[in-house]
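Entry type: protein chain
Record version: 2
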Amino acid sequence: MADDSRVPIPTLTRLATYYKILGEAQVRGVHNLNSAQIEAECGISAAQFRKDLSHFGEMGKPGVGYEVAKLRARIATILHLDRTQRFALIGAGRLGQALAAYPGLNDYSFELTALFDTDKKKIGRRVNGIEIEDADGIPNRMRELNLKIAVLTVPGSEAQKASDAAIKGGARWILNFTPAHVRVPENCMVRDIVFTQEFAVLAHYIEE
């Protein structure tokens, strides 16, 4: 079995894409797909697809391709999507509430468990069945719920404070939707999702 302990992040990103299209194939009742069909479904080349899977050993069968259910289950194990991943969301503004209500998270086994905000007018309200709690209680509440994942949807000026509170509560993995850079200890990981950067990259390719 190949060693998957240090898989490149771009590979993991593509694996998440494969996981999605394999799930869609299952819904359609498709049992097998070959690499060319995978390419047609997601736009990632067949050669890249095979290379990505090579990190984890042989999964396909000559002349048959890949068993959709089996391959999706294997990718779920690699990405740890074969278990429920509970997380806290800090910031119940428009973006935070949209994420809290997004049904697609269930497809990836992510479960919103706690929602926090500093706005006293919002505290006590519910979003998708989850009560908005006072952000002052983040450390204690995250320890109580044993949450290791935090998602930040606060204003950039509040990002470091929110990150610090989450880490104090035991967070090790942070998904940062703010435009601010947050500093974390070496044993923590931050993934930055900055929409404006993506617009800037897209703008570079726009022809005059």
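Comment: Residues 9-27 form the longest helix (19 residues).
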